[in-house]
Amino acid sequence: MSEDAFRNPNGPESGTSPFEAVGRPRRNRQARVETLREMGFGWADLEKEPYWIDQTIVMDRSVYTELEAASCALWGVFDKAARFATGKHDLYAMIGIPEVLWASLDLLPLPDEGKISRYARFDWAVSDRGDIKLLELNADTPTGYAEAAVATPWMCGQHGIHSPNERMASLVREAWDVWQPDSAACVGYGSHLEDSGTIDMLVRHGGGTTPAYDCLDLRVDHGVLKNKEGAELRRLFALYPKEWMSVDDGGDALAYALETGRLTLFNSPHAILLQSKGLQALIWGLYELHLLFLPEEREAIGRYMLPTYNKAVFDGDFVSKSMFGREGGSVSPFDSEGRPELKDQGGFDTGRLFPTVYQKRAELARIRLASGEFHLLTGMFVLNGTPCGLLGRAGGPITGHAGHFVAMGVR
C-alpha cells in the first residue's frame, strides 16, 4: 500500500489552511446561551466566562475524509494492541495499568472486536498544512458529548454547513441497547455542570429511562454496588476514570465487585488499556520492531501517530505527559533545545500519581476568531465503534481546562 493510500488527492491547495471561521458572535448571547441550556448544553458560560464561542469552524471536506479514514485505521490498531497486551502483566506495568485492575482485565471477557470502548474520542492535531497527527485517545470517560452531539449541529445548521455529528445520538442508542445499563453516574452528579450534563444527554440519547447518581452516593457492600437507598445496581455506566480506583478509598471494593461479576461497568474495564497513553508507546515500539501489525496498519501508524516512548529519547521538540493525564494538566512541553516551556496550569497534574510518556510535538492549526487567535484541537468521537462526530476546542498550544468549545463542520 502506498503512503498516499489514506490521503485524499483532492486536498486543500498548497499554502491554504484546511480551516475557516464563519459567522460573527451574535449580540443576543444570553438568549442563545439559554437556548443551548434548554437543548441540554447548560455550560456555554462557565463561572461567568464564555466557554462556548459563538462562531463555527469549517473543515475542508478532503481533510475530513482523511481524518475519518485515519480514525477508522487507528481504531483497529489500538484494538489490536489492547488485545495483545491483555493477560500480560509485564505489559500492564509498562503501560501504567494500576494493579487493582489487573484481575478484572484477566478474568473478564474482552468485548467484541472494535467494541472494547463504545464511547470514545480521538484528539487530533491538524496543522495549517492539513497534516494529521494523533495526540491521544480518550477511550474511557470522554466529555464534550453535548457540545458535539447537540450544540454543533445547531450551530452548523445556522450557517448551512454539513455536520457529520448528526448521527451521534443514534450510535449512542445502539451502544445503550447493547449495554442495557440500569444506572448511570459521575462524581458530583447534580452539581458538576459538565459531567452531569454529559450523563443526562447520554441517558437521553440512550433511551431516557436510566436513573443517574453521584458516585459519592454509591457504596459497595460485600461485593454489591448499592445506591444510598440500598438498592442494588448491576449494570453501571459511569464517567469515572478507572485509574482512580488505585487512589480512591473504595477502589479495592469496586474492583472486587467487577471481578466477581456482581457489577458490570461501562465502558468495559478493558477500556483503560486503550485509555493509557502508555499503549501509544507500546504501539510505536511494536511498529519500530516490525511486530504484530499488518502492512496497512503500519502505514497508518507511521503516517498518523507520533513517536512515543517511556523514556525521554528526544533532543528537543517533545512533550512529557502522564499516562492518565486529562485536560492538559500533566502535559509539559520542551522546545527545540530540550528546554522546558511554560506548561498549562489549568488542569490537574496526575504526573505524580501515574507513569509518564514522552511524545514528539505536533503542530496545531491557528485560527483567527472574533476574540483573538487560537490553536485548534480537533476531536473525533468514536461511538459504538464508528468515527462520527467532530469536537472543536480553541486554546493555547496545550489545549487544557481553559480551552473554549467551538462548533466544527465540513464543507
Automatic annotation (TrEMBL):
Record-linked SUPFAM superfamilies: Glutathione synthetase ATP-binding domain-like
Stretch list, region Disordered: 1-27
One MF term in the entry's GO annotations: metal ion binding
Keywords noted in UniProt: ATP-binding, Ligase, Magnesium, Metal-binding, Nucleotide-binding
Residue span(s) of domain Glutathionylspermidine synthase pre-ATP-grasp-like: 34-407
Protein name, per record: Glutathionylspermidine synthase family protein
